[in-house]
């Protein structure tokens, strides 16, 4: 799909608004972040993978990453030609397996397990990514213990975030 639009600022983010009709041309009845490949004024090459974010009315916001703006030499206020293609190859980024020790501990701690299942998938993914990045067995053990504490309701900081009541 090709369209012409003006780059606007939304909050602090340069973006282009994609109408519900244009979004439906890419993928009908899509209501979650839509994976697409984009080019602005023919750049970058190859097309940049990104998710368009739903507006709630069937339309989407297409946030323009600095890499795209720099490659296309564009800025807020510029009228641009945009090419957008649905990206069927997108698979929600890297997925990390739950460490066996964490899985066992969640099974044995009902309150932590309940908090874990109540977390949004993005937060679960963030915790699993963090645990997978730890190198030493000591660091993994220490952080699994901290994760269980905060998920069990302890008010403290974990992963640069304040936790209270398992959230």
Descriptive notes:
With 167 residues, the protein is of the alpha+beta class. α4 packs across α6. The protein is elongated and about 55 Å long. It has a 7-stranded antiparallel sheet with strand order 1-7-4-5-6-3-2. It folds into 2 domains: 2-86, AF2212/PG0164-like (Elongation Factor Tu (Ef-tu), domain 3, Beta Barrel), CATH 2.40.30.100; 100-163, no CATH class. A hairpin with a 2-residue loop joins β2 (8-10) and β3 (13-18). It has 6 helices and 9 strands; from the N terminus they run βββαβββαβααααββ.
| Widest beta sheet: strand line-up | 1-7-4-5-6-3-2
How far apart, in Å, are the first and last alpha carbons?
A: 41 Å
CATH superfamily of the largest domain: AF2212/PG0164-like
Would you tell me the overall average pLDDT? 92
Low-confidence parts lasting 5 or more residues at pLDDT below 50?
none
State the major sheet: 7 strands, antiparallel
Q: How big a fraction of the residues is strand?
A: 25-35%
Q: Topology as H/E string?
A: EEEHEEEHEHHHHEE
Question: According to CATH, what is the topology of the largest domain?
Answer: Elongation Factor Tu (Ef-tu), domain 3
| Structure summary, number of beta strands | 9
Oligomer: single chain
| Shape summary | elongated
CATH hierarchy, class of the largest domain:
Mainly Beta
CATH architecture of the largest domain: Beta Barrel
Radius of gyration, in Å, reads 21 Å
Q: Total helix count?
A: 6
Structural class: alpha+beta
- Count of discrete domains: 2
